[in-house]
């Protein structure tokens, strides 16, 4: 559904005289490859993908919290005992 909506938006934009050449999305977006396979603006114009920094930070933070939890379960210290340490 999201892919079809994006396709329709891009098709309408060209009728109004402009083109979207960059797509801002999260890391696992299926819309980006879908739009490039549809070649909305023709085979010579490819849509570029930019990563949304909020999604990148969210994934990085989740991975770090998971790693800390796993290491704590093993009893491994990941830092000092002062303020801001991981243990």
Structural class: mainly alpha
Summarize the amount of helix as a percent range: 40-55%
Shape: rod-shaped
Which stretches are poorly predicted, pLDDT < 50 over at least 5 residues? none
Average pLDDT rating: 83
Rg (CA only): 21 Å
**Termini Cα gap:** 45 Å
Task: Report strand order across the widest sheet.
Answer: 1-2
Strand content: 5-15%
Could you give the order of the helices and strands? HEHEH
Give the biggest beta sheet.
Answer: 2 strands, parallel
Could you explain how this protein is built, in words?
- This protein is mostly helical and 87 residues long.
- It contains 3 helices and 2 strands; from the N terminus they run αβαβα.
- It has helices at 2-15, 31-38, 53-74; strands at 22-25, 48-51.
- The chain has a two-stranded parallel ribbon.
- The protein is rod-shaped and about 60 Å long.
- The model has no long low-confidence stretch (mean pLDDT 83).
């Amino acid at each position: 559904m999201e892919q079809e909506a994006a396709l329709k938006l891009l098709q309408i934009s060209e009728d109004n005289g402009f083109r979207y050449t960059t797509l801002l999305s999260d890391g696992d977006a299926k819309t980006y490859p879908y739009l490039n396979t549809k070649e909305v603006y023709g085979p010579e114009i490819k849509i570029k993908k930019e990563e949304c920094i909020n999604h990148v930070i969210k994934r990085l933070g989740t991975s770090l919290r998971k790693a800390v939890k796993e290491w704590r379960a093993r009893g491994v210290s990941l830092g000092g005992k002062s303020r801001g340490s991981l243990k």
